[in-house]
Amino acid sequence: MIGIYSGSFDPIHQGHLEIIYKALKVFDEIWVVVTKNINKPNQTNLDERVTHIEKFLAKVNNVKVLKNEHQLTADFAKEHNVNFLVRGLRNSDDLKYEIMLADGNKSVNANIETVFFISDLPTRQLSSSIIKEINSYQKKE
User: Fold this and answer.
1) Is the predicted pLDDT of residue 16 greater than 60, yes or no?
2) How far apart are CA 86 and CA 64, in angstroms?
3) Is 122 helix (H, G, I), strand (E, B) or coil?
4) Taking Cα atoms as reference points, which of 46, 127, 133 lies closest to residue 90?
């Protein structure tokens, strides 16, 4: 059974890795699908992110890194006959957003199910956006 863990992953971090490891306890294989997010216009180049993520996950078994530049994740899943999406939750705000996202995905692909994994406390506080901001200031020093 395959689960798709889709996101912009800009950058990928330990919290994402934690969700992948949790999902691998349930799924035989996880496809990390690096996606272009139209709501984040200043993203790192998609191909660069894919290459970076492949290196980041090189030692993780049963994980495949794929690029999705032009499709909704639900359509990507349908095209590849995958019926499960993996999502991570840090807090109640994430839950509200993820429920809306799951509903949207379901409206596009009636066969899709979303499986949520809760981040552990040490990785719960940092988002990719915060990490990206920290990195941008540290590079200037």
Assistant:
1) yes
2) 14
3) helix
4) 127
- The DSSP annotation for 11-60 comes to T--HHHHHHHHHHHTT-SEEEEEEE--TT-TTPPPHHHHHHHHHHHTTT-
Distance CA 102, CA 90 (A): 16
Summarize pLDDT for 91-125 with one digit per residue, the tens: 999 999 999 999 999 999 999 999 999 999 866 66
Q: Is 25 exposed, middle or buried (0-12, 13-18, 19+ CB in 10 A)?
A: exposed
pTM: 0.85
State the average pLDDT for the chain: 90
Confidence of residue 40 (pLDDT cuts 50, 70, 90): confident
- Got the DSSP string for 59-99? T-TTEEEEEESSS-HHHHHHHTT--EEEEEE-SHHHHHHHH
Contacts of 45 (CB under 8 A, 6+ apart): none
Class of domain 2-71+85-140: alpha beta
User: How is the chain split into domains, by residue range?
Assistant: 2-71+85-140
